[in-house]
Amino acid sequence: MAYGIVLLIFVWQILSFFYDEMILPSPKVTLITLFSILSNFDVWQHVYLTVFCIIMALIFGTLFGITLGILASFSSWVNALIKPVKDLLIAIPPVALVILAIIWFGEGTLFTTIIVSALVFPLIYESTVNAIKAVDQDLIEMANVFQINARTRLLDIYLPSIIFYILANFLLAAGLAVRMMILAEILGATKGIGHLISMAQKYLITQDIFAWLIILITIILAFEGGLVYIIKKYLLRWQTQE
Amino acid sequence: MLIFDRVKKSFNGKVIIEDILFQLKSNRVMVILGPSGVGKTTILRLSAGGILPDEGKIKSDATKLAYVFQEPRLLPWRTALSNIIFVLKGDKNIPFKERDKIGREMLELLGLKGYENYYPSQLSGGMRQRVALGRAFVVKPDLLLMDEPFTGLDLELKHFLQKMLIDLLIWHPTTMIFVTHDPQDAVRLADDVLILSGRPGKIAVQFSLDLPREKRDSEYLHKYTMKLTEYLIGESLWNQQNTYSKF
Fold first, then answer.
1. What CATH number should be reported for the domain whose range is B2-64+141-239?
2. Which residue in B has a C-alpha nearest to residue A148's C-alpha?
3. Is the pLDDT of residue B240 over 80?
4. Is A167 on the interface with B (CB under 8 A)?
């Protein structure tokens, strides 16, 4: 992977000789811009806000997805109600959804959080429904003979199975959440990283955009790394052999 | 007490067992022997009340049921201690702190002190089955059903677990049905022995072992295991001839 990155920077450096700074700023210029951006205290607040909104959107989308997924698995009525909404959310291109949401809810932080939650939700919902179908029936039979009550079944059998099953999709949803949050902010927010990127685009400060991309990549990697760490340490500790 | 009165059960039109008639008195252990497919597990499931007989009656005064399966069926995401406590959670009479204490005592009884926080994947096969035994006894059942719990374990481990089961039965005497195809299980554990054979499965022989299990020495075990083995082999030979003659 390290070779790939070196090669990428090398190609970037070569290409930047042939193009104007406004089209393709060199790695050096980008780095300098990056430091000047990060040394500005106001900018950090935008970064915090974006990260906070991403986490909130992930939490809301996941909670709704798991809760409704469980309800839908045990009630055909809820299932019939949610399924078309979920299918619609998956079928509509995210950008179209963002544009519609701006028209309906107006611009701002609340809107971006809602829209990203709505994009996370169907992914988690779908895998929760599948997870419940995949719950080990031997364990359910065991719970039946021991007359285990519904609450304990939910907390000790269903939820752990679901969490294990949906982890891959959750990581996918986390990646999606970061990307969609930036998109939503670019299109319709007055704060956050996306908003700063859209300002840079407006004034054609290309090196700013490049610097932001590097910040974003760092955020995504840190985010996924952090999630994988939490998953391994707390959620999958029972899976370790010996 | 558990009574089967001329019970017949079929699945998908195929008769699995018929004419099953026995009376199991409280706090006695009945071992059901017989080849695979003879309907041993069906009798367990009928006793548990999960399925109903087609004909005949089943009478049981059991209110608290426990089951040990062939596989441990532990929750992989819970520790050994949590797996044992798990079955007590529905019981509102036992407060949280008390549950924890009961669980720890049970693990000590199972010789698993120090393994409280181990996950099933970190335990050996025998340890997992011990936890499953503990989980069954910790609810203090009045009917304990065991479906070939020692099958597939090596001889030494099997011996060890049989002894542990005898100890657990002293700790909490209970009515128990133990299904197996190993005659040694019967000779070590049973008060009453039921041998099934044929298709559909019927009771071939029914008898009691009167010597208390704690007093059965190796000579006793040897003698009766041999007897039972000879009998079972004879039975299965007879069955095979019967099956072959159909072709």
1. 3.40.50.300
2. B90
3. no
4. no
